Amino acid sequence: MEFDGVLRHARDVRKEPWPVQFACSAMVGPNRWLMVAHGPGPKLALDAVEAGLASGQTIELFLSMGMCGALHPHFAVGDVFAATVVFAGQREFVAKLPQSGKPFLKGRLISQDRFVGTAAEKNELHVLGAQVVEMEAAAVALKAEQLGVPFFCIRVVSDTALENFSIDFNQLRDTEGRFNRKMIAVQGLLSPFKGLPNLMVMARRAKTTSKILGDFLADCEF
Asked: What is the predicted pLDDT for the residue at 196?
């Protein structure tokens, strides 16, 4: 889903038979990209990176991309954010900034194995000095550091700092960490006045923000 936007700009798209949920290679601008997705959280993100590395292709840089939640109260849905620092627990990783003629925000990103769905929790993280939050970047950054490969992290804001979700998505993850879509749908139906509208908003924003991010990335130089 998060690759949909950038794939609109891709050519020579080839599916890759790797042991992950989604993998393809494609030309985006002058470069060949390996796009791999395997699910939320650091463990599944690391599995995705390892699958790409196992292909034997030369990897010139790592890019963690996708959606994020805003912690800064002035960030809006659709804002593009490039991390300068990714931190998780006691670790901090420096991220490089892309070159682009399009505007983007930049700052500190916190990466954790938890979906942040309340304004109160977002505020607690913002007090720590982060502007956005997501779930996979730290695992990718660690691998990039181990291999001595440049690391970029570019995200698009999908929910604001003041928004609350009535569904606790953390309670709806399976043993591998993936979100159980059937259980999420059931929770939405059981909460037709709060949960279901939340899911509908998320679905609409996913399409819109994926396009925004794809348009931005297609215009970037790394």
From this structure: 86
Global pTM reads 0.94
C-alpha 96, offset from chain centre? 16
**Count of alpha carbons within 13 Å of 173, Cβ hemisphere only?**
15
Residue type, 67: M
CA count, 13 A, side-chain hemisphere, 52 = 25
Nearest to 34 by CA among 4, 9, 55, 8: 55
Distances 62 to 34, 52, 146, 193 between C-alpha atoms, Å = 10, 10, 12, 41
- The reported pLDDT for the residue numbered 116 is 97
For the domain 4-218, what is the CATH code? 3.40.50.1580
Q: How far is CA 157 from CA 27, 134, 202, 205, in A?
A: 25, 10, 12, 10
Q: Is 61 helix (H, G, I), strand (E, B) or coil?
A: coil
Which pLDDT belongs to residue 189? Answer: 83
State pLDDT tens for residues 157-212: 999 999 999 899 999 999 999 998 888 888 888 887 788 888 998 899 999 999 99
List b or e across 136-147, with b for residues whose CB sees 16 or more CB atoms inside 10 angstroms.
bbbbbbbbbeee
| pLDDT recorded at residue 61 | 97
